[in-house]
Structure formats: structure tokens, C-alpha cells
Specification:
elongated
């Protein structure tokens, strides 16, 4: 018997145009070849970067954390049965392969594009890129452990972009596998990129991304130590994946506008809890099949602003210097949470692209806060005045992921309880956003969510914000302690300038899901508040009016005569006087007695 859940919600899409000859190409975000992260690698630089995704971000590995305690030992495992890996549980990250010889139960079943008439055009699998993972490992279906693959490249002629028709699909699963009970799915990260395989001789590493032994100390690390490394920032490319052997880069390109992409996955473990998306108008469903879950998602991409700024330390404004620790170069509120030992290790360890130093003129410091980090949001607010409140780039993005434990740490159990699978999804096109589900403000009875982004696009146009929240109705009732009666919702957006007008707003409850959508507001750092209410059931009072008196009618009723009873006689005496008394039940008069 199949169990399914389906829903959709909307997001505002930003279009830009670029001229190529006489043709006009509409894209999501900046057109053409993706913006490249600058290679600001000199000493004495402070680099600040707010970005949703990085080059070469996902790899497969199976690791025994006990082995990692010795930095000079290879911590990776070839399978769950690897004799080197003796711990009762292993940590895994697995990019799912295409359904076939490598796996039939944890794999990509289909990828393609959806037409305006809802017809699906299936892409054709081209190859894995690179050909195999540096730290590949075997699957174990009995323990629900996926195969450790690499990203997949599909050919999709129905969605041509400036770089061709190739798309890189990365489905990353992460968690822990217990040898006696099986794998636990902790995180699911789904990403799609338009790409073109381009020659690139400037990739820094001699081996592919993953765990490998350091061959030189150029990054401040001791040769011979085992570290997880990826490709550096070449300054002229944005490689979502790379092949060191082939010297090829999967260069990121802009998404074509008005294209809706879909994915069908098979998974032995289903994602649970809360998810966050960088997608537009998605439709999602989970079906329980025999031996696996079928997970389908279709959606449009959305543009997300990037903010990048580099200062040579002597030229860095004092207002920004004041919020960073001089000794470590890190954000002061984060340093305040460290122990003296942790601070010492930070100073001695790697520092951006260089070995760390207590002298900011001799180190290259990179600050890359996660998009859901509170410290990242606070820093972005401090940096926006120094970038003219303007985005460096707008990157078209198509991604969806579960939240990690840190993001959900302070969330209500109603949101994080994954016993029934997915509890909800939140999405926004903001650069930075609140980690986790919306926060419940008990005093005001509101669900609150903070976002931050530049007010302007790179072209100095006003950047329009969007926010969507969808959650199971029973989750909302859990948060508020509601009954099964219908839920009503109101939404407001406030900022330092006061309340904002919301151009588009949709609030409602349908098919067991509560959906809330807002767009048309502006940044830099508004707070979105949703208030849910429920009316108490009204008592039903039935009014009765006295009826007018009706005249009494005489009705003749035929009565069947009763059968007569037999009469008796007795003799009663009083002295010498006697009387005969007759009747059905004769009795002697007072003073007389029966003779």
C-alpha cells in the first residue's frame, strides 16, 4: 500500500537578460558563465564571503573516526567490512549513483525537465564526473548504506543553456552506519547545476577532492597528514566538480528561465524533520514502495545574492576591524565562545589560504559564514554599508536540503520530530536566513523568521524578497496546541523602517498542509512573522417557540366493555340484629361482624 504526500508553494523569480549577437537569452540571476570567486590569496588580506554554495562542495567517503585520531593514518574505509575499520559505527557521505549496476535501492531514477503542459522530458545519463570517487566505497543494502559515487552528468536538450545542454546532479546523503543495526540518514542535500566540461590547468590539487595525504605544506599543513581537501579558487572558474586526471572542470552556468526541473530518487531511508530550499514553486511527493521510498521533486530555480569583499588589512575600515579578533582574525562573538585551548589551536592551525598568524599582515584570513548562521547574519548586516548594500553577483540556484542538528538545536520538537517523515519546508531567496524552522514567540503567539540580503542587485535594481513556509497541519497544531478545527493565519513583515507592504500573500490550509507565502518585500534585514489562530467552536443553541393553544376536540372512542365479575353475599350481625351485604367484595359495616 502506497503512502504519499504532495504539496507546492511559490517563490518570486528574478530574470535578467543578456545579448548574444541579436538573440536575447533569459536566465535566472546573472547570465552566462557563473561568477567566479576571486583568488585573493596574498598575505595581509581579509576576505569576507557570503555565498550559498561553494565550488567542489560534495564528495563520497566512509570514515572510521577512531583512525582520524592519528593524522598520519588513512581514515577511509572501502566497505563496511573493511578490516582496517574496527569501530562499531562509521561516518559516511555518499553521492548517489544512477539506478543500475552500482545500486538499485539508493539511486537517481530520473532527471529531466517539465514543459508548460506538465509533460516530462527525461534527460540522458552521460557519465560520472570524475569517473569514480577518490574515496569510493561499496554499498550494503542489508544495512541501508548507499554506494559512494560521484556526481552525475546528464544531457538535457530540452533545457539548453549558454554552456550547452549538460547538467551536473549531486544527491548527497550523510549519516552514520552501525554495523549491528544499519545506516541512519542524517542529511540529504539535492543540487542541480547547468555545466560545461572545460579544460582547466589551474586546479590546485594533483588528486581529486576527498581525503588524501598532504604532499606539501603550502596550506600550512604538515606533509603526510591526511585531510579532506578540494579544489581551490582559481579566480577564473566556478567548478562544481573537477577531474584532476582529465584536467577538466564542470564549470557552472546560469539556468535558463522558465524551465522547471524534476528528479526521481530511490532511497532506503527517508529524509525526516525540516528541510530548506532554494527552489521556486516546487511539487514534492514521497511514496513508500516495496523495499525503498520513492522521492520526487520538481521546481524552478531561484536567484540568490552573493556578497564578496576583500580588504588589505591596513585599508580595512576601523568599524569592521573592531568586530574581528586581532589575534585569530575571527568574529569576536564566536571567539568569545572558545576555550583558551581552542583559541591556541586556531592560531597554530590553518588560516584561510595560509598558516595562521597573530599578525594580520602575515596571514590570509577568509571568513565564510554558513547561510543559516546567526553570526553570519550579524556580520552581513555590518558589511552591507561597505558594499553599498549591493550584491556582488546573483547565482541561479536549485537546491534542497535537510537541516543539520546545529540548525535545529533550539527548534520545537514539533518541528524536529521525524517519526512521520518530513515535517515542513521553508525557502527564501535571502543571502542569510535563520537556521532551522521558524522560532515560536510564546508572548506574541507568532512564528518568526529572520532574513538578510543586499537591498540592490549588481545592476543597482531593487532586489525583491520572497519567503515560503509549508508544514504539516498536525505540526502547526502541535506547536499551538490547537484542535482539529480550521486554522487561520496572518503574516506581517517588519524591518528597521517599520512594517512593509507585501505585494503577494497566500495563506491557507489544504490536504493536511498549512502553506504560507509572501513576496514583493525588500531587504536588507526584515523579520517575517506568521500568526496562527483558531476560533473556538460555537455552541449550537436550538431555539424553541411555544406553539399556539389548539382547541380541544371531543373524540368518541369505542371502549370494549369489561367482563363483569361475580357478586357475593355475606351475613353480618350486631347483637341480635343481622344484615345481608352483597357485592363483588362485600364487607360488614362498622360495628357488625361476619357470621
Amino acid at each position: 500500500m502506497k503512502k504519499s504526500v504532495a504539496f507546492f508553494f511559490s517563490l518570486t523569480l528574478i530574470f535578467f537578460t543578456a545579448a548574444t549577437g541579436s538573440a536575447v537569452i533569459e536566465t535566472v540571476g546573472d547570465p552566462g558563465r557563473s561568477w567566479s570567486i576571486p583568488n585573493d590569496a596574498e598575505r595581509g588580506m581579509h576576505v569576507q564571503e557570503f555565498i550559498d554554495s561553494f565550488p567542489g562542495e560534495a564528495v563520497s567517503y566512509l570514515v572510521d573516526n577512531e583512525l582520524r585520531k592519528d593524522p598520519f593514518i588513512d581514515p577511509t574505509c572501502k566497505s563496511i567490512a573493511d578490516a582496517r575499520c574496527t569501530s562499531p559505527s562509521l561516518q559516511y557521505s555518499a553521492l548517489l549513483p544512477v539506478c543500475g549496476p552500482l545500486s538499485e535501492l539508493y539511486c537517481i531514477e530520473e532527471f529531466g525537465v517539465v514543459s508548460s503542459t506538465s509533460e516530462q522530458s527525461k534527460g540522458v545519463f552521460s557519465r560520472y564526473f570524475p569517473n569514480q570517487a577518490l574515496n569510493k566505497f561499496d554499498a550494503s543494502e542489508s544495512l541501508k548504506l548507499p554506494y559512494g559515487s560521484t556526481g552525475s552528468i546528464f544531457d538535457l536538450p530540452g533545457a539548453a543553456h549558454d554552456g550547452g545542454t549538460s547538467y551536473y546532479v549531486s544527491i548527497q546523503t550523510q549519516g552514520e552506519v552501525y554495523k549491528n543495526s544499519g545506516a541512519v540518514l542524517g542529511q540529504l542535500d539535492v543540487r542541480i547545476y547547468p555545466v560545461k566540461l572545460e579544460p582547466n590547468d589551474r586546479l590546485f590539487n594533483s588528486v581529486d577532492s576527498g581525503f588524501s595525504s598532504v604532499t606539501d605544506g603550502g596550506g600550512g599543513n604538515v606533509p603526510g597528514t591526511w585531510l579532506q581537501a578540494g579544489f581551490g579558487f582559481s579566480g577564473n572558474s566556478f567548478c562544481v566538480a573537477g577531474s584532476a586526471k582529465e584536467k577538466l572542470c564542470a564549470q557552472r552556468y546560469a539556468f535558463p528561465a522558465d524551465k522547471k526541473f524534476y528528479l526521481k530518487l530511490r532511497m532506503q531511508n527517508r529524509p525526516a524533520g525540516w528541510m530548506h530550499g532554494r527552489i521556486y514553486k516546487p511539487e514534492i511527493s514521497f511514496n513508500q514502495e516495496k523495499g525503498f521510498y520513492s522521492f520526487s521533486i520538481s521546481a524552478f530555480p531561484v536567484a540568490v545574492p552573493v556578497v564578496y569583499k576583500m580588504y588589505r588589512y591596513p585599508e580595512m575600515p576601523q568599524a569592521l576591524k573592531d568586530i574581528y579578533d586581532y589575534r585569530t582574525g575571527d568574529y569576536k562573538p564566536e571567539v568569545a565562545l572558545l576555550t583558551p585551548e581552542q583559541i591556541e589551536n586556531t592560531v597554530k592551525g590553518g588560516c584561510g589560504r595560509s598558516k595562521c598568524s597573530e599578525d594580520p599582515l602575515t596571514r590570509n584570513k577568509m571568513i565564510l559564514p554558513p547561510p543559516s548562521s546567526k553570526f553570519g547574519m550579524d556580520q552581513l548586516k555590518s558589511w552591507l554599508p561597505f558594499v553599498e548594500d549591493k550584491a556582488t553577483a546573483l547565482l541561479g540556484t536549485w537546491s534542497m536540503r535537510t537541516l543539520d542538528n546545529n540548525e535545529s538545536r533550539d527548534a520545537s520538537r514539533c518541528f524536529t520530530d521525524g517519526s512521520n517523515g518530513l515535517t515542513g519546508v521553508v525557502t527564501t531567496n535571502a543571502t542569510q536566513y535563520s537556521g532551522g524552522p521558524p522560532t515560536y514567540n510564546n508572548s506574541e503567539g507568532t512564528l518568526e523568521y529572520s532574513v538578510a540580503a543586499p537591498h540592490f542587485t549588481p545592476q543597482k535594481q531593487v532586489f525583491v524578497g520572497s519567503y515560503d513556509l509549508i508544514m504539516r497541519s498536525d505540526v502547526a497544531r502541535c506547536v499551538y496546541g490547537f484542535s482539529k478545527a480550521p486554522i487561520r493565519a496572518s503574516l506581517s513583515i517588519t524591518s528597521d523602517q517599520g512594517d512593509q507592504k507585501v505585494e503577494t500573500e497566500a495563506l491557507g490550509e489544504k490536504d493536511g498542509w498549512l502553506y504560507l507565502s509572501a513576496s514583493g518585500f525588500t531587504y536588507s534585514a526584515p523579520t517575517i512573522k506568521v500568526k496562527l489562530t483558531q476560533e473556538k467552536p460555537k455552541e449550537v443553541v436550538v431555539e424553541t417557540k411555544p406553539e399556539a393553544a389548539k382547541p380541544v376536540e371531543e373524540v368518541a372512542v369505542a371502549v370494549k366493555p369489561a367482563t363483569p365479575k361475580k357478586s357475593l353475599s355475606i351475613i353480618c350481625a350486631k347483637g341480635k340484629v343481622t344484615k345481608r351485604v352483597s357485592g363483588v367484595n362485600p364487607k360488614c359495616p362498622i360495628g357488625y361482624r361476619k357470621k
